[in-house]
Amino acid sequence: MTHYLRLLSLVVSAMLLAVKAVAGIKVSQTLPSAGKPEHCYTMMNANNYYCNATTSPTQTKDNYAQFAFYAASDKANTYYIYNVTASKWVSYDQADSYGAQTGFVKMTDSKVDAAVYKFNELSTGAYEIQPYTTTGVAAIYLNWYKGIGNDNPVNGNVTLGLWTDNGTKDKGSNWTLKEVGVQQKYTLFSDGMPSNATVIINGQSFTGLNAQGDQSINAEEILASDITVKVGGGYLAKVTIDNANYQIDFKFIQYFTPTASIDAEKQYPYILKMPSAYIKKSGDNLAHTTSASDADRFVLIEAEQGKYYIYDRTAGCYIYYTNVANGSNQTTTANSNVKYTTDKATANTWQLMMLSEETVAIIPGSVENPTGNTPSFNFTGGIDNNAVLNLYNANDRNSAWQFIDPSKTPMPFATLMYALPGAQYIHKLPTKTGETVTSVDFGSISTLALHDDRVAIGNKYKYISGTAPAEEGEYEYTLNLTNETGDEIQSKVRLIVSSHLQSPTPMMAWLTWNWFARAISHDKMVEIAKGLEKYGLIEAGFNTIVLDDAWASPTNDKAALTYDPAKFPNGISGLKTALKGINNKLKVGIYSDAGSMTCENYQPGSYGYEAAHLALFDSWGVDMLKYDYCNSQAGTKVSYTQMGNAVAKLNEERQAKGEIPFVFNICEWGKTKPWEWGAEAGGSSWRATSDAREDWIGNNSRPGVLGGVDEVRKLWMYAGVNRFNDLDMMCIGLHGLGGPSNNTAGHQSNGGKITGLTDAQARSQMSLWCMFASPLALTCDLRETPKGEANANVQMPNPLITDADIATLTNTEVLAINQDALGQQAEYMEALSTGTSNYSNTGYDVYVKDLTNGRMAVSVTNRGTTAVSVPDIQLTSIYLKADNKYTCRDIWANTESEIENTLSPGTLQPCETKVYVLTDKATVTSLAGVTTSLASKGSTRYDISGRKVAEDYKGLSIKDGQKTLK
Fold first, then answer.
1. What is the pTM of this model?
2. 676-696 pLDDT, tens per residue?
3. Could you tell me whether strands 587-593 and 544-546 are parallel, antiparallel, or unpaired per DSSP bridges?
């Protein structure tokens, strides 16, 4: 009978090999004396070393030995190991006991002389392997005892030894098995592959990779050495190979934007920073400074793909190398391997090697296939010895360089803020370590003040609050800070007060992508709109239907962009008319891309055609743009600013005509920290994660509910009115039947049937998206007769959406938290939480969110799939007062109580999130506070967040100071 073992998958990055579970392997039946074993495997430990033919360590692919496994019939989970490469059985001398040792394993020609090994499967799918004593299994494990080095030389002859720690304690005892000779289909993924990039795998070239995995390659196994990525434009690629699920992910990171020439009208200057200093030319020397303000400004000019001239714009010279070799400690540039010249003909080029997502090594351009030992930019000898810029090993910590844009805010919080005239306002100011906000010069603003009552609590920061100026216009206030050395720092904050902001509260919409992908049409969107109306979702606020990729006629000609008449026979304007006929509140959003083609490589992007394409969208009556970043042709800030400028001009025209603002959503997946520049580029929200999947946890490239939240939970200081971190589409109502949303970390394929979210997980997604002030985007099938579109041939329930889904999506109180006029993202209270590791499936997380009128929303999420007991939360630890009575509204339980000093979440069921709204009774009740703030607004009806609502609004609302509950 065939026996099976399970394997740990192999994940290999471009810089480092790592491994985890693949499929099961079969035990061989044919003995070596009768023929070749049916199944052969390599053996690798968790330190990424393989066994060679002598069972000594190797990382050279050609030296990997192959092994076959034969079941030992008399003992459970025991196997003979045959070394196919050496044509020997792997044995040992059996004894009463064993101690830690090197060279334990021996080789023998005959199975009769072979020994049996016990295989214990770990929770990860890897194995620990034990020998037997004369009486039973020894509590000791195969391991290169004393590690790799003198005792176990790489590619040597010392056989495997023994160590006392098992595979959960020591990586050297943790073994992965990989079958040889089986071809697999590897799916290729990328969020935002630049248009000029090429991926080469075993000689086969790929361009235009996307997040949907439209391209693939067949191979037995793919290693980092099999892949080459050709890219310029200041980009490098981080490559992750998952040999468990047979996929490869390419993450392109842009470290800088090249400048066309030293005379170019548009320049992109950077300061170059190693861990403790910057480059500054001083006299005749390329020296250092520890002050960023004193550092020289450099531009990088791309001579050929991935090769750059480095020009010191401050000193007016090129930086070049005279010898590709490590330098010694030199205090004068004349004696260094790195020099400067004003003559471009003398200069040579440099290239980059990724060290991390933040840092690179800067390597001579003439080097082919650079490694960690390649000479690179370094103050060789150290800045303490006044060493000048020279060359030294790329893997030296002082060879790690950052390109810092001096035009970016140095502050770790937003410095472009928005407000409606006369609205409540808060601006949180967490500072870098050692920095303190000492005062604020408010200039002409008399309605704001600096507060310090949170400096010793929670996330420990000062904040500005009050009311925004009543008159529209652009204001400025100046923050005065001191650092740990006593230096004074100033940072200016722009405050734009306008009644015509793109999105004062987060956008609420329905998007086509996760259900329909390319299969969209006029009739289908009309049926979706009918479903939105039927289930009360338009009234709840979901008022925009967004056409994602593939709405246009397929072409690569940007000048020919138009809708596909087969899909939209009445045009986009005709679709809008039809939607308005269902509910006049409905609007249309559309999709484009800041590159040469969209992510599906289906229709042209808008880079270079921003004004023309936006005018086209506007002429159709479109009110919102989702703007992706595939096949990019320039850096993110440049690309999005060009469209942002066009949107700003359009909105000036719309305001003059009394029309609603056009909304601009940036979608570059958080790759270049859009929370730091997205508002300045003209956006009102920006994706901060990769595409969300219908999963509870997920991972970085395929985040589930908590995976996405984990990536954004420490970005609360960048969110506010008209500037929101976007967690992507919610998966509520998909029930495991979506298309791209099914490409989860565990499923790894578009479509099919997956488990999907439970009702508790769906409520948690709604709770967290609302607490985080994320745009809310639905993507489920709301038609009378649901049909698989991006996921064909799957049986659908009718209706697909359930009563529980509708109750979750239309809960007016949780929606009011999302739409609260203060615009805050919930703060992560790490000190009160136990689920502090990203992508963890254990522990719980506590979040608090400031609401209008001094109210506070609090949520507690159980990350795990078993119940968890959460201790009482002291109200003083979440910025509230001691010995005050608070009204505590439990949103999902629909109950209200009075609390003092502590909030008691109690037991949370699996994946449950509890959400509370706390109101200080000593000041005003929740509704009274809203009444007071809204009494002066006239005879308009408002919900409890201060948002205008219709007369027939269902839920708590206020008009003329009178409270109504429907």
1. 0.81
2. 999 999 999 999 999 999 999
3. parallel
